[in-house]
């Protein structure tokens, strides 16, 4: 059979692959997405869309329907209890979820993956073919030929693509075919999720949360209109477990009504980062590039940021205004973020497990009533804005026009907005309803109080939009009367000129340096 020809083949139809599909459509790239499952996942799986992901999805016009089907902000909290029927013995806010923050025009949400994926699929984008499984590939100097099998018809299909974006999960077939190793702890535990329904309103209505951590597993409300999940270590005799009885006992005595079990899913909690984020024309992303423990809700969001970083680079190369070498900066920029994210997620998981074990020991010894547990963290431990909004890229795709030494990067909990090259452009309101982030699109954006000076330097082939700003905003950005910020299509600052540059070709020189 003749091969199907596309510019980018996306393997994997989870949130990361679906986001890549929408982004490539936005940047005018002809793509195709294949997914081996029969349909979108019916399991809740990932539960948190953080503030940075919501900024990205807002650019795609998807924030409003996502918020409409998500929990209210007051659910952006984690609560610790002996059983679900007990009162809290500790609680922590999910910063950027439970209340608006001045650092962003949006707020993150608690929502289940099976609510998010249909919204992503409904966005304009490339064809998505279900029940089509990636089998193997062969790469040459001009592209990649992928062998796929259509499970509905049984027929083999060949797809010829300029590039392959692998978003096929932690057990990625693409990564395994390429022989890309991983680093990190690896499999850290067998976990079971039980999706069920029960009348738990009287225990939770006055103290809502996105996650209730108990000594007998964690409970998660699934949808605003109802439904729950219990999540905990998989029992050794899982095949014989009465899951309704297990959940009922974990809930504690006093439950009025029955527990209806809908689904049970066994899965492995993985913790690793791929040693390579690029193999020629094949680029792993999301869980295929880094598997992150679920505690803290960092995994899916890191994957969405991956493809936001990658897709504009693919578009630039395919449209001819960037050199193929630009794709090398995907690994340079995103691999360190994945490694730092993994460290924090593993620490989150370990601390939560310690708290659960300590409380269980107190309950078994009968001292729980007299001894309150002291959690091994403060609320700041869950304030991850430094990791979410404070990412700093150091690569050839960042041009230090002012030739100043880079500022220290944010770590974990702390976030300090700055216009240093490599950082995400800080949010400021340009007008009462228009953010600096709204000026960013399928182009490079130049923010400047003196657009006439910089217009003289515009040359092909780069897509560029000049956004005039007031002197007040320029001062806030650390710019003089003729200064400028050059912002990449992914919202990270590519170059900064504090004031007029002596080089009248400064702008095209910076664009060339970033995209070569």
The largest sheet is: 8 strands, mixed
Tell how many strands the DSSP assignment holds.
23
Summed over residues and divided by their number, the pLDDT gives a mean of: 90
Lateral arrangement of strands in the main beta sheet: 5-4-12-13-14-11-15-17
| Approximate shape | globular
| SSE-based structural type | alpha/beta
End-to-end C-alpha gap: 37 Å
Unreliable stretches, pLDDT < 50, 5 or more residues? none
Cα radius of gyration in angstroms? 24 Å
Please give the count of helices: 13
Helix percent reads 25-40%
Q: Tell me the β content.
A: 25-35%
Structure description:
This protein is of the alpha/beta class and 516 residues long. Helix content is 27%, strand content 25%. It is built from 13 helices and 23 strands. It has helices at residues 15-26, 51-59, 63-68, 113-122, 173-178, 201-204, 243-251, 299-319, 328-365, 385-388, 451-455, 471-476, 506-515; strands spanning 4-11, 31-35, 48-49, 77-80, 90-93, 109-110, 128-130, 132-139, 144-150, 156-166, 182-197, 211-214, 217-221, 228-233, 260-274, 282-284, 290-291, 429-431, 434-435, 444-448, 464-468, 484-487, 493-497. An eight-stranded mixed sheet has the order 5-4-12-13-14-11-15-17, with helices on both faces. Helix 1 packs parallel to helix 8. The longest helix has 38 residues, at 328-365. It is globular.
């Amino acid at each position: 059979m003749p091969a199907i020809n596309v510019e980018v083949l996306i393997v994997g139809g989870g949130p990361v692959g679906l986001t890549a599909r929408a982004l490539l459509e936005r940047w005018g790239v002809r793509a195709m997405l294949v997914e081996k499952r029969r349909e979108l996942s019916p399991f809740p799986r990932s539960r948190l869309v953080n503030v940075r992901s919501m900024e990205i999805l807002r650019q795609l016009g998807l924030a409003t329907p996502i918020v409409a089907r998500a929990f209210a902000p007051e659910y952006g909290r984690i609560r610790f209890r002996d059983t679900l029927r007990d009162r809290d013995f500790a609680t922590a806010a999910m910063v950027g979820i439970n209340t608006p923050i001045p650092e962003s025009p949006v707020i993150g949400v608690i929502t289940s993956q099976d609510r998010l994926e249909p919204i992503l699929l409904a966005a304009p984008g490339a064809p998505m073919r279900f029940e089509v499984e990636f089998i193997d590939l062969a790469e040459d100097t001009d592209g990649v030929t992928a062998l796929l099998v259509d499970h509905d018809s049984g027929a083999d299909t060949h797809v010829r693509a300029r590039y392959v974006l692998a978003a096929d999960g932690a057990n990625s077939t693409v990564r395994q075919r390429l022989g890309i190793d991983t680093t990190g702890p690896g499999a850290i535990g067998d976990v079971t999720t039980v999706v069920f329904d029960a009348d738990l309103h009287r225990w939770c209505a006055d103290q809502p949360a996105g996650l209730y951590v108990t000594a007998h597993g964690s409970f998660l409300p699934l949808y605003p209109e109802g439904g729950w999940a219990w999540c905990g270590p998989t029992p050794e005799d899982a095949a014989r477990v009465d899951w309704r009885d297990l959940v009922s006992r974990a809930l504690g005595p006093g439950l009025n009504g029955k527990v209806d079990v809908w689904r049970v899913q066994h899965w492995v909690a993985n913790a690793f980062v791929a040693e390579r984020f690029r193999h020629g024309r094949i680029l792993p992303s999301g869980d295929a590039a880094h598997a992150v423990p679920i505690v803290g809700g960092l995994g899916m969001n890191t994957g969405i940021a991956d493809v936001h970083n990658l897709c504009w680079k693919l578009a630039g190369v395919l449209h001819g205004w960037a050199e193929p070498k630009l794709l090398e900066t995907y690994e340079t920029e995103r691999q360190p973020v994945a490694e730092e994210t993994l460290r924090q997620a593993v620490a989150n998981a370990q601390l939560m497990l310690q708290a659960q074990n300590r409380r269980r020991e107190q309950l078994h010894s009968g001292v729980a009533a007299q001894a309150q547990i002291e959690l091994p963290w403060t609320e700041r431990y869950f304030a991850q804005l430094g990791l979410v909004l404070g990412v700093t890229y150091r690569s050839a795709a960042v041009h230090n026009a002012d030739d100043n030494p880079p500022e220290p990067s944010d770590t974990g909990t702390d976030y300090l907005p700055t216009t240093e090259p490599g950082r995400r452009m800080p949010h400021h309101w340009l007008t009462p309803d228009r953010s600096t982030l709204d000026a960013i699109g399928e182009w490079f954006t130049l923010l400047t109080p003196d657009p006439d000076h910089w217009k003289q330097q515009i040359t092909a082939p780069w897509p560029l939009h000049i956004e005039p700003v007031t002197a007040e905003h320029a001062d806030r950005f650390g710019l003089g009367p003729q200064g400028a910020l050059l912002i990449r299509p992914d919202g990270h600052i590519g170059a900064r000129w504090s004031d007029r540059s002596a080089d009248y070709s400064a702008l095209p020189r910076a664009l060339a340096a970033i995209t070569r």
